[in-house]
């Protein structure tokens, strides 16, 4: 698989919460940071979104926002309105005036990711993806949004199952959205994949993580000098190429250990170690515990893992 497909396969996203959000009149609500990826699809009207450390962003009908990790944020219909702190909930939400037809409607919620590798994998993604309706209109992404809005307006049998699958599809489409620019994007996989030379090297590593990759060999695939490749990779990904490969191998190994359907020898071979002993030493060094103990602890073992 390609690098982005590999990440999505390990994250195994599902829609954890999906709820209608509506508002009328003047309103402003603030949410604290919480440990779940969040999304919003604006179905009618508009509002402003302000992340804790950013400028306000105008959201309009048909816009899609994805926050792979959700920081503290504020939603409001216009500046200067007193803000009310609220807590995330799975129930439908109404802001502002409680009576009358809403002048703002959206669908929001969060995704559930496989916990064991989420900190590492989410660190490879941008902090926010905003796809305005004007860009998505007429594209496959826009068609999915339209299907989503249409399904929300019905009460057909199987509605919730359809909505969940459409949300998961929206997540994948958002992560590979063609208009995401490298300029201003934080270091991470999507940043690097928009550099054709780095993308060639990344695809090679993901296609064969067992290979004895070197900076020189990867630089040849990228068509760069060794020093230029090393510097550009580190700038785009936030770490060196060999370190990235080591982290990816460990992510694959953790997932395999969690599933419990492969022997230690097989996992070691699949991630490029000569023996189970060599793999165990590397895993213990990075994770602070032996692979066997990690497998026994299961999800509880995730709490002991370093966030890289």
TrEMBL record:
GO molecular function annotation: DNA-binding transcription factor activity; sequence-specific DNA binding
The keyword Transcription regulation is annotated on this UniProt entry: yes
A Pfam family reported for this protein in Swiss-Prot or TrEMBL: HTH_18
Keyword hit for Endoplasmic reticulum: no
Keywords linked to the UniProt accession: DNA-binding, Transcription, Transcription regulation
Residues of the HTH araC/xylS-type domain: 199-297
PANTHER family: ARAC FAMILY TRANSCRIPTIONAL REGULATOR, HTH-TYPE TRANSCRIPTIONAL ACTIVATOR RHAS-RELATED
Protein name: Transcriptional regulator, AraC family
Organism field: Sphingobium chlorophenolicum L-1
């Amino acid at each position: 698989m390609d690098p982005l497909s590999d990440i999505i396969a390990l994250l195994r996203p599902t829609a954890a919460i999906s709820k209608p959000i509506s508002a009328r009149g003047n309103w402003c609500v603030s949410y604290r940071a919480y440990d779940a990826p969040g999304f919003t699809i604006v179905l009618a009207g508009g509002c402003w979104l302000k992340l804790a450390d950013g400028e306000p962003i105008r959201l309009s009908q048909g816009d899609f926002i994805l926050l792979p990790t959700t920081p503290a944020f504020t939603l409001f219909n216009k500046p200067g309105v007193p803000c009310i702190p609220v807590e995330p909930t799975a129930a439908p939400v109404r802001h502002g005036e409680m009576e009358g037809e809403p002048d703002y409607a959206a669908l929001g919620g969060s995704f559930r990711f496989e916990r064991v590798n989420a900190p590492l994998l989410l660190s490879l993604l941008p902090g926010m993806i905003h796809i305005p309706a004007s860009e998505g209109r007429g594209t496959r992404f826009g068609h999915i949004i339209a299907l989503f809005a249409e399904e929300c307006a019905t009460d057909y049998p199987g509605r919730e199952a359809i909505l969940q699958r459409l949300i998961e599809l929206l997540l994948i489409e958002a992560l590979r959205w063609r208009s995401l620019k490298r300029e201003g994007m934080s270091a991470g996989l999507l940043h690097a994949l928009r550099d054709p030379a780095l993308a060639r090297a990344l695809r090679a590593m993901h296609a064969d993580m067992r290979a004895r990759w070197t900076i020189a060999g990867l630089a040849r695939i990228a068509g760069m000098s060794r020093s230029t490749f090393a510097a550009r990779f580190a700038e785009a990904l936030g770490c060196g190429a060999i370190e990235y490969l080591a982290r990816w191998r460990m992510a694959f190994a953790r997932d395999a250990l969690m599933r419990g359907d492969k022997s230690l020898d097989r996992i070691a071979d699949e991630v490029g170690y000569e023996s189970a002993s060599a793999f165990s030493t590397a895993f213990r060094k990075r994770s602070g515990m032996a692979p066997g103990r990690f497998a026994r602890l299961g999800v509880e073992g995730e709490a002991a893992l370093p966030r890289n």
